[in-house]
Amino acid sequence: MHRFFPVRKVRTDLHPDPAAIRPLSTPSTPSAFSRAVSCFWTHGRVLLWASLLLPIAPDALTAHSVHPAFDPAPADSTRLNAPEPSPAASPASLDTVQAYLQRAIAQFPNPTPSAIDYAQAALSMSQKLGDPLMESRSNMILAVSYYFKDFHSISNDYYRAALESPALPADSKDRANIHSNMGINYEFLGQYDLALASYRTSIEIDRRLGDERSIGATLINQALIYKAVSDLPRMRESLFEARAILEPLADTLNLALIDQNMSLYHAEIGNMDSLRWYAARAEAVYEQQGFTVGLMEVYSNQLHHFTVVQPDASAARRMVRRLRELDPEMRDGVMYSMLKLGEARLALLDGDVETAKAALQIG
Asked: Which candidate, 66, 84, 337, 349, has a CA 20 to 30 Å from the CA of 215?
């Protein structure tokens, strides 16, 4: 089965207080107290886009497979055989907690076992110091770390612990982000009702905060839940609502994410002309922004459509050529498997069984 690539946004902003909120998609100027890191993560059929903001001094972190991921028990995955010495040997201090979180976040979106060790050490140290704010943020970093490791139930356990912190105001940016990210985890686990409830809570908080950009991002994620449950009218409605919010903000990349997902909507209803139109709009923005992963996803989805849904050998060849041009070595395993499957299907369209077998390494 082909795995499509809808787009979600994962939020990991960490803000000291609501007054320090910065738009999720707006680049921040690095300073002595914060840094913004944009990172792209492809997992299965998902692109996750995160803007990370982490304070490093006391005065100063969306869209998934519909199949539940296997989550080991927390006891089996806490340390994951970290290759570095235990960070817990360092003396407890707020500066050390912040340094550990910096080390953990620096490894996103590919956290190693040592990243989880550092975040766990930060959590233990912040508890000993009696600092509820840093304890909450340590829980958030652990949640994001386990999310990137595909341990979605464990990730939500840490998010729930973060929500219990008295340091987080009822209407805070951190709470809105946590609920949004929990929704993504619930989608991975196939718990769609809980995902929708989490997204709605996030949107309610963002509305009270007046954060229109984040509302738009969460609506994109919400639309993909409706796709997963085959509620296409609501999928379209959510994407249109997101566009109405984000267009006045001139949020070009988020609007391209909507276009990419609208192409999937039109694929579901069999409207190939609209599929091409929306995919072309997303492609143009990704080209302009130099967003290679987004381009690869657009081309992979179209390669599937032009070899399976609406066979078009010429269009399929263009998709193969563009994918090869973007990443000749195809470093991404999922994307590489999609390319080889598409090449095999294209060969079958041409009646070339031997080339199809070679693409799939058969015989």
From this structure: 66
